[in-house]
Amino acid sequence: MYDIIGDIHGHYDLLVKMLKELGYEKTSAGYSCEGRKVIFTGDYINRGPRIRETVNLIREMVENGNAMAILGNHELNAILFLTLDKSGKYYRKHLPRFKLPLLKTLEEYSKYPDELKETIKWFRHLPLYLDLGQIRVVHGGWNSNHIQTVQQFMAGETKIRKSFLKEFIANDILNQAVTELVKGVELELPKDLILKDNKGISRRVFRIKWWESAEGKTFRDVSFSNRFKLPEYTIPKEIVPFIENYSEELPPVFFGHYCLEKQDLIIKNNLCCVDRCVVRSQTLSAYRWNGETTLVAENLVHI
After folding, report:
1. 296 lies in some domain
2. What is the model's pTM?
3. What is the Cβ-side half-sphere exposure of residue 90, based on CA atoms within 13 angstroms?
4. Mean pLDDT of 81-98
């Protein structure tokens, strides 16, 4: 059985408390619990106070078979920002918008440059999703077409090779597939369509539900985890993104990313976001899965 833990962002102390609450005990091989295994949903770095220790704890559990871990958008950004291609250039330009989220991580590792390099290499061995048959885990949003695209470009590899990163930068189809797996679906408005929040700030990009079609719906209908209200105005059909409907007959999906500080974490009978927005709420969340096909709030654990 699995314990699925949401975004941690360097909050090591809360992670240790969560593991103990879930029944895991520290041994010479890291934290473990007989008959159970942790699944980490990504976003281990940035923002929090003890990033290195968080990564090392997770890695120890994974390498000793007591946990599985997938990539979040923060780890993917770190890979692209800190990995050199064959010509000696970074895959992601060192622009402020890419560097700013990494500042705390770079600061923590400033005295451990070799460890940082090794950590980035380890990140490249983590998958973008897990399909375990009875449950599925992804950081942003599940999409079977995107998964097929990733599998095609991975070509049977379990490690994200530099050739894959090169294609991610150059190939729009692969870029969209990977981006939406780690960030879900975001709707970007054309320049001539302006939406403003209740503070009068223009918003051109916002998160929307990745599990149901947006066709014929309003901006407010499809909005998910945005910190501002969107208008009850039907989305013009010219900009409606294609979204797969994730039916309730499919296996439960656990995901993170969305920073749901107050919203219910169980979205549907088979959809659960385990990200309680640890940075703002100082709360870490997990779901104890015991084989059920219909998810229940009683199995959520908050620390």
Report:
1. yes
2. 0.96
3. 12
4. 94
